[in-house]
Amino acid sequence: MAISRSSEKYALIKFTCALFLNVLTCFLFYWCLASRSVPDSPTPKGIKVKRILPSYLDDSEIWTKEATDPPMENKADDQNLMHKNAALKKTRKHEFLADCRMSNCFNFNRCKPGERLKIHIYPDSSKISSSSISSTYQKIIQIIESSIYYEPDESKACLFITRYDYLDRDPLSRDCQKNLPASLPLDYGKNHIVFNLYSGTWPDYRELDLYGFNLGYSILAKASFSYQNYRPGFDISIPLFSKNHSTRGKTLMEPEDGPEYQLVDDVVIETIDTTRLDSSDRKNLLVFKGKRYTHGIGSETRNTLHHLHNDRDILIYTTCKHGKKWKDLKDERCAKDNLEYEKFNYSILMANSTFCLVPRGRRLGSFRFLEALANGCIPVLLSNNWVKPFEDVIDWSEIVVEGDERSLLQLPEIIRSYEWKKIQQMAAKSLAVYETYFSSVERIVYTTIDILNERIQTHLSFTTFLWNLVNPSFTSFTGAIWYDAEYSFDLKDYPGYGKLSDSYSPSRSFPLSSSSVPSNSISLPRVQGPINGFTTVLYINKPIMPSTIHRLIKSLSKSQYLVKIIIIWALPGDPPSILMKNPFYDSFLVSVVIPESKSINAKLFPYKDINTYAVLSLQPDTTITVEELDFAYLVWLSFPHRIIGFTARDHYYDEDRYRWYYTSKWTNYYSIILLDAAFYHRYYNNLYTNYISNNKFFAQNFNNWDDELCLDLIFNFLISHLTREGPIKVTQRKRTSNSSSSLYNLNPLNSQECFTFLYNISFNYVPLIKSQMRFDPVLFKDPVSNFRKKYRKLEAVS
Amino acid sequence: MDCLHGVWLIQKNETHFVSAFLSKEASSINCQVFTLPFGCYCHIGSNLFPVRESFHWSGYAETIVISNTQSKSIETIKDCNHYNCFDVYLCNPDDGILKAYLYPVKKYQDSEGVYISGNFTEEFYQLTEAVFDSPYFVNDPNLACIFIPTIDTLKQSNLRLDETSKVFASLSHWNGDGKNHLIFNFLPGSFPDYNRRLDVAIGRAMLTSGGFDSWSFRPQFDVSVPVFSPLSNQYIIRSKEDEDKLVVEQRHWLVMSPQNDLINPIAKKMFSQMDSDISDKVIVLESRCDSLVNFSTWRCNSQRNLKLHYPEVLTQSDFCLIMKTAFLGSPLLSDALMMGCIPVILMDNYVLPFQDKIDWRSISVQISENAMDRVIDILGNISINRILEMREQGLYIWRRYFSSIKSIVSSTLSVINERLFPQSVISRFEWNRPKIASHLKPLSLINPKLSSRPYQGFTAVILTYDRVESLFQVMHRVVQAQSCVKVLVIWNNQEKEPPQPSEWPKISVPLKIIKTKQNKLSNRFYPYKDIETEAILAIDDDIIMLTPDELEFGFQVWREFADRIVGFPSRVHRWNNFTKQYRYESEWTNDISMVLTGAAFYHKYYNYLYTFEMPKKIKEQVDNQMNCEDIAMNFLVSNVTGKAPIKVAPRKKFRCPECVNGGMLSKDVLHHLNARSKCINEFTAIYGAMPCETIEFRADPVLFKDNLPEKLKKFHHIGNL
């Protein structure tokens, strides 16, 4: 049938041709249509495709078999590459290998597929004096060394980083290390990452001038990269950050004072029309405060900025003071500018402005960039050709305004055209992206490593959406650097994203969700993931009467939210058979796991049996009631990214001894919730295992390992560090078992030692966040009839 | 077939190529159509123009002879970027949009009379038409910011390289180097080198091409586009059901290699090995099936004696391998997306179409060539959910960016437009519009973690009408909370003037009185510039019972949950199964879903939302009825965040201690409750669903009711009920 239909078509065409009496043209079209008339064409619903002209592909090599055989093997590309490789090998000293890509300058054989990236650091710290490493570079090294990426064995490593500090290659700068090797000792720098913040020097500030250092094949993670030299898919553009950038904690750049208020004696009375809107609630539209250069590279842009100043809502303050010899080069405006400059505090300026100008300096990158982001001030870039930090993964189009140095004067008009809503979104994104990827040296380094990891194991890449899901509405878990491709690609498996309660979800078409999102939603068959309800984990590492466990199981099984109980048998020998099979409960409810490792880490291992998002860590001899647990579980549903529990602890700073202390006293605050009875998200088991259990640095440096309280402290540190949010205490209850028989090791000396180790060595700061409130049932202790109350038993507990 | 002779009126707004050459002033023009041996033409002025409706397309109005001695354009400059090769001053900022000029069509011959630039291909014709139809088109070269030559360079192997460059050089605005010109190409390279960029010398012109590698691509300058597949024409109209079916239907193979002529011999060998070893998962389609069958429509596997129709065969596999042939870019990528076969990109350094814009990670799997042997492992580990998501998103991307010449052209021009006009930048999110589960939608812009600056206190905003005495009392109370930094009194009474400045109480923080022009309840939620803190305490002028401790504690709780309403009077909504209506509940219950703004902290951002973004209908209703503004605010916030408000401390009575029910008679109470219930139901209808969430907890100070001396407690004046 198909054949006959197409021959009809041919006949028609022949007829048409005859009419035309133009054999040549006709032949052409005959041929064209013939080659195109597909037997039994699948064109849906009989729609005829009207074709008039030949397609560009009609006689293409792509379709016709008669096409020339593909060029000699590899002719097209691989030869290209070979050619490039040859060129690379011949490279002379100091030559920049502009053609480097992962495929020709990186040795993939060093990286075991399917394995986490391993980074080796050399030379050994004993072989290099610490004075030749700047404090910033020390931070970078320290972060990698104490991360899960660290690999002490050179032969097992995939990536390398040296202790040689090439961060600052400007010989005029104090931090420039002068006695470093001129090239990397190992393998011509292959698989190495070199971090650099400053390259080039006065007067021409050449970007690739690394003060005599030859990069070889190494990957350059550099600030102030330009597109001219950036090797896409190979190098990484990092932000310029200052010495004060904190190692792991959030670097605050906001002004320390709140808004300034003038107390006036007279009360001001003003009439306001509440029907119109100002586009922004910040006082200034656009600000800049910084150095300008009267001469030389980069001077042009900053010197012209004053044209924008209007003394009303666009405020530009520059100073000519920089270096020693500024006076020799000053121009007629300097004196006045310098005076004005001193009057204003720039962090206050930034915090009170909607847009912040980020012009290039001598180099393309500027400190103003991170400062603006941190203040929720939308950066307006004036730095042509600058490769914005981490632009492989971060979508800057939602955050910055990219100006053009050539058309500076158009800026005011451009930024005034932004609408209120857009401004709010950009400002909020600035804050969020700063927090997520730039707020500490650790986050900058981790983001760098993650980008490299995605280049090496390309198939494990997260989507752009996920990388940029730093949307502030999710107060919980933000930033792809904390996700785990091996755990899940599905956001609902991470704390804070899934709709966990059973109530139906409202339509959120209004107002900020884009109503233009395509309505192509169809119901796809989805595979069932983890379910609602909670799994209780009983970790048993001290002898305990089986009857105690039985009693607990019996009482737990009354909970309407309990899905499963997992007993982790960490004692030597097999668990008593009575635990394994008991007619009293069915095997679906209880399972016994014997962990491979008997270390305390087994308590927080991501066991496959945990198939609920909520995990309840419970001490086997607990006296807590099911009613309290159910209440705590309902609270957890509202805050699945936090630890929700009963036993609260606090920390404080002793100003006399300049130290932080841990305390188990009852205070008006708490910052820690112990795991004797606490709910948390199952993903934290993965995180803990990845970041703590498998961390070689941790294992090496930590003696007091097998201590439950210490484990709880680490867990609290870790979660607060990642989420920047504290745990939540529920109900009045202060302890969950009779202290005399408690299995918890509550040795106060140990706990302080553990606490000190954590803030001094492993985290470098105290990430814990204090809270002054706890959650009680709505009618708790209210003088109303007990019958009215849902949680009656809770009234009695104290 | 004959041409439609006669005089045609060509309208300016007609999507007709001829109208591209109408002058700016003339809205239409008469055009005499007649038949020539090569097709239909019409006269406009002294020029001949081809007419689209004819059966043929060939021949041009004017033939230009390019002599042998004419010079070429300067060589293509490798270091070009937007800043050193593009003249922004040609673009008028007042236009607010890119202006693109299309050269008139001419025919070019060499001195021997052999054509250099032949007839248009269908795709190039559509391309010029797309430019013309786009909002960027301008027909006056003096107003133009970029110039698009009408010389069909879509496929390099059709071109005479040097002569084409000479043609470019002869263009009126080329000026030797082609600055601000845009050249369209799909398939660069030709036998035997197959270079990854158009080998025609184009100087400083920008190149839009389908086969860049990361060496030939000039970032911030060139545009990498899809290689258009003419097969798209057959599928562009496809029903929603068919597409849905395409997404969900189970597929036969895991992975397919549908290409002929792979150039990597190792890949060739490896996949044909897999084809025989794991034939249930892998299928390799060969080039040489039946020599009579055209490759564009058939694929074969001789081993299994299969002859399969293309591109339908692509619907039989979850994944399609895209590897290097002589060309880097090929129409296969488009076909694969079109048929829901997830592309597996096995080409290092290939610059994917619209690479900076399209989120390729969400629609394809990229595997580096050195990991080729692990393809089956990697693909086998991808969950079915992810496969379905990628496929669905891939279809969306295909439709939006691959399916027609028009979509390719308008996306290209919009990329260039974004470079010139930063205010028109389209975010990557908007480019891709990922499908997001409802609970993931970017909802609120407030993150407690980010926005509650610790040093800032709160601004108390008190709405008042004429209860001056109790207003003063409330003011005194509020300023005793140490975080209160300012008091704003909204004087909503137009009949009566507020007390003279001297009559106001002296308080320890700045005080400002704002008179409104109309007595509207919504005035309490207006984003007054005087509110400089992030936190607002909304408080009624008769809430005199809250202690400073309670207020201060409430503010501390708000700082932890800055995206929610945090306050004192709580209410709940209930579903009545009998009336099928919601009911407003003011009894003291075990659960809460609203916190009234008679005494509550919230973020000032919500004032903007309330005033300018909330459905108008709700605001009008509130102002007309003089009621329910607090319910409206609760709906607004919960709808944006998906979260419940937080009730602070046990207190449930707030007005004067003596009076019961705030002095209302029981009949009034009933009336009041009914009106409130009505609001809830009406607002729910406007939102399309009930946004409020119910919770069973409230916030108390850590040591609340603990058996400790009161002086040890930070907040001890926490009242009952």
UniProtKB/TrEMBL annotation, chain A:
<dbReference type="InterPro" id="IPR004263">
    <property type="entry name" value="Exostosin"/>
</dbReference>
<comment type="similarity">
    <text>Belongs to the glycosyltransferase 47 family.</text>
</comment>
<keyword id="KW-0256">Endoplasmic reticulum</keyword>
<comment type="pathway">
    <text>Protein modification; protein glycosylation.</text>
</comment>
<keyword id="KW-0472">Membrane</keyword>
<dbReference type="GO" id="GO:0016757">
    <property type="term" value="F:glycosyltransferase activity"/>
</dbReference>
<keyword id="KW-0808">Transferase</keyword>
<keyword id="KW-1015">Disulfide bond</keyword>
<dbReference type="Pfam" id="PF03016">
    <property type="entry name" value="Exostosin_GT47"/>
</dbReference>
<dbReference type="GO" id="GO:0005789">
    <property type="term" value="C:endoplasmic reticulum membrane"/>
</dbReference>
<keyword id="KW-0328">Glycosyltransferase</keyword>
<feature type="transmembrane region" description="Helical">
    <location>
        <begin position="12"/>
        <end position="31"/>
    </location>
</feature>
<dbReference type="InterPro" id="IPR040911">
    <property type="entry name" value="Exostosin_GT47"/>
</dbReference>
<dbReference type="InterPro" id="IPR015338">
    <property type="entry name" value="GT64_dom"/>
</dbReference>
<keyword id="KW-1133">Transmembrane helix</keyword>
<keyword id="KW-0812">Transmembrane</keyword>
<protein>
    <recommendedName>
        <fullName>Exostosin GT47 domain-containing protein</fullName>
    </recommendedName>
</protein>
<keyword id="KW-0325">Glycoprotein</keyword>
<keyword id="KW-0735">Signal-anchor</keyword>
<dbReference type="Pfam" id="PF09258">
    <property type="entry name" value="Glyco_transf_64"/>
</dbReference>
<dbReference type="GO" id="GO:0015012">
    <property type="term" value="P:heparan sulfate proteoglycan biosynthetic process"/>
</dbReference>
<dbReference type="InterPro" id="IPR029044">
    <property type="entry name" value="Nucleotide-diphossugar_trans"/>
</dbReference>
UniProtKB/TrEMBL annotation, chain B:
<dbReference type="GO" id="GO:0015020">
    <property type="term" value="F:glucuronosyltransferase activity"/>
</dbReference>
<keyword id="KW-0479">Metal-binding</keyword>
<comment type="similarity">
    <text>Belongs to the glycosyltransferase 47 family.</text>
</comment>
<keyword id="KW-0325">Glycoprotein</keyword>
<keyword id="KW-0735">Signal-anchor</keyword>
<comment type="pathway">
    <text>Protein modification; protein glycosylation.</text>
</comment>
<dbReference type="GO" id="GO:0046872">
    <property type="term" value="F:metal ion binding"/>
</dbReference>
<keyword id="KW-1015">Disulfide bond</keyword>
<dbReference type="GO" id="GO:0050508">
    <property type="term" value="F:glucuronosyl-N-acetylglucosaminyl-proteoglycan 4-alpha-N-acetylglucosaminyltransferase activity"/>
</dbReference>
<dbReference type="InterPro" id="IPR029044">
    <property type="entry name" value="Nucleotide-diphossugar_trans"/>
</dbReference>
<keyword id="KW-0256">Endoplasmic reticulum</keyword>
<keyword id="KW-0808">Transferase</keyword>
<dbReference type="InterPro" id="IPR015338">
    <property type="entry name" value="GT64_dom"/>
</dbReference>
<keyword id="KW-0333">Golgi apparatus</keyword>
<dbReference type="InterPro" id="IPR004263">
    <property type="entry name" value="Exostosin"/>
</dbReference>
<keyword id="KW-0328">Glycosyltransferase</keyword>
<feature type="domain" description="Exostosin GT47">
    <location>
        <begin position="98"/>
        <end position="380"/>
    </location>
</feature>
<keyword id="KW-1133">Transmembrane helix</keyword>
<keyword id="KW-0812">Transmembrane</keyword>
<protein>
    <recommendedName>
        <fullName>Exostosin-2</fullName>
        <ecNumber>2.4.1.224</ecNumber>
    </recommendedName>
</protein>
<keyword id="KW-0464">Manganese</keyword>
<dbReference type="InterPro" id="IPR040911">
    <property type="entry name" value="Exostosin_GT47"/>
</dbReference>
